[in-house]
Amino acid sequence: MxxxxxxxAGMIGRKLTEQLAKDGALHDRAVEKLTLxxxxxxxxxxxxxxxxxxITQDLATPGVADNLIAGRPDVIFHTAGIVSAEAELDxxxxxxxxxxxxxxxxxxIRHAGGFRPKLIFTSSCAAFGGPFxxxxxxxxxxxxxxxxxxxxxxxxxxxxxxxxxxFVDGIGLRxxxxxxxxxxxxxxxxxxxxxxxxEPLAGHEALLPVDESILHTHASPRAAVGFxxxxxxxxxxxxxxxxxxxxxxxxxxxxxxxxxxxRIAGDKxxxxxxxxxxxxxxxxxxxxxxxxxxxRARALGFEAERSFDDIIRIHIExxxxxxxx
Amino acid sequence: MxxxxxxxAGMIGRKLTEQLAKDGALHDRAVEKLTLxxxxxxxxxxxxxxxxxxITQDLATPGVADNLIAGRPDVIFHTAGIVSAEAELDxxxxxxxxxxxxxxxxxxIRHAGGFRPKLIFTSSCAAFGGPFxxxxxxxxxxxxxxxxxxxxxxxxxxxxxxxxxxFVDGIGLRxxxxxxxxxxxxxxxxxxxxxxxxEPLAGHEALLPVDESILHTHASPRAAVGFxxxxxxxxxxxxxxxxxxxxxxxxxxxxxxxxxxxRIAGDKxxxxxxxxxxxxxxxxxxxxxxxxxxxRARALGFEAERSFDDIIRIHIExxxxxxxx
Lengths: 325, 325
Description:
Helix content of chain A: 40-55%
Number of domains of chain A: 2
Order of helices and strands of chain A: EHEEEEHEHHEHEEHEEHHEEHHEHHH
CATH superfamily of the largest domain in chain A: NAD(P)-binding Rossmann-like Domain
Largest sheet of chain A: 7 strands, parallel
Radius of gyration of chain A: 19 Å
Oligomer: homodimer
CATH class of the largest domain in chain A: Alpha Beta
Strand order of the largest sheet of chain A: 5-4-1-6-7-8-12
Strand content of chain A: 15-25%
Number of strands of chain A: 14
Shape of chain A: globular
Largest interface: A-B, 24 and 24 residues
Distance between the termini of chain A: 42 Å
Structural class of chain A: alpha/beta
CATH architecture of the largest domain in chain A: 3-Layer(aba) Sandwich
CATH topology of the largest domain in chain A: Rossmann fold
């Protein structure tokens, strides 16, 4: 089978590609070709038997999506897009990257005709906006408080309509905060949820821009890749017409994250967090949802970690080779 | 003040324009200029003191929205768009008219800069999609089953984001079925809700394409114009960040509509309805919501009729000069 990954240079895109390379197959079908696209050069996965095409272009540029779709990928993982704080700071770039890119992709598929690829889209729980009930169920409305959340919510609607019309076989996954993100901090307003774990574990100081009482829902990068791969194998008749799903995760406060860090790595490591409130981050995060029911996703077999301790352990295993500094 | 009405040749646009002409003012501010735009020539309102500009162009054509916004309207009533069945039959036309038109308008306002008009958008309860709870509250999600509903839901999201960013002072009104629509049948799948009342009252036969047990929520054209005018006077601080509202209406079955017709106009008139099931209409209407709470809209002073009898009486008063054939 031929798999297209957009946003292949991004964190989720790279981890997904590595997993596909490692498995050599997707739900028992051998991966014969892998097309990786992003505005930045996607790293070629190591040890893959499939043909790999790396296309460094912007999906929103006219013609780019058509060229990608001309290769008739069986499965498309659409993870491309810019992150929340960047979309808030650069209005035009956010709509171009997060909305126009998706629309170009969907239009290219529709115009190609005669084929109906599986399209797995990474939406975000930032598509929700407060005030929130104690637990957000699967029928709560999307009233985002950021341009990023707005763009994700619009993409969900487009994906559902193009799916209903039979142009594509879509599924949207509202990811919780992905934690612990490896690598350098990015412009996501949610970045601190990861850096307060990652940086101390690597021997560095981390800044905490919000209050410790902030509660949020997290899943590991490993769980996120698991969601994407699981979604690719879900038959449309199990999914029904409501194709956009809130993914499960671990709900905990920042204080509970820090306590888990102390349990696993010791108080010396947990003491490497410095409080430095940031009004922009506080404003964005304040508008984000807290706890999700995610009943439909769980019933459909999507699985996240059970505790924040597990999330930290996965980071140490997957990123640090088991070593804490 | 300068008022811009898009979709000014449409039913709601024309009725709104007539009301503005009659009042000569909007919330105590004299109407000095009225710009009427549509893809069809908008009829100039009679007896209006204000300057009237009629612009027959497509809002989605590059430059058209910019030209309209160059006149710096204080209030914009954006009622333009194609109806549900047409958007379902012509995918491209639906997205162009209902989505690209709105985006062009919002972008023109953003790029004009230095002014922040009031923008009242006519959304639709077709933005909802089943399965539904008994009563749809103000926090129920939008999962439309039509391209039309999808386009309306996307416009709501865009309007909320452009409002949050301070480019415009927006409010979206999810209209129930507008009943009794005057004039000839249009391509709206909801058309029969009106024609089964309008045609018999005018001495003609009407076709009923769905079962009599279908329950729907209705408001008169007079109520719809009232919603638009009321919305134009609502201060943003009363509205808060959730600027898209489900409007109130009268919930009743088709059987109850027919019973009301019999009460008001006699059984001979009510007997002019012929049952002729239409699979496309049945499919579209089946996906539509039934009963709404509309608690927020009611609390904000939006008012619809109390009974379907009232809706029929308003039609007879406003359209038939009080005469039933």
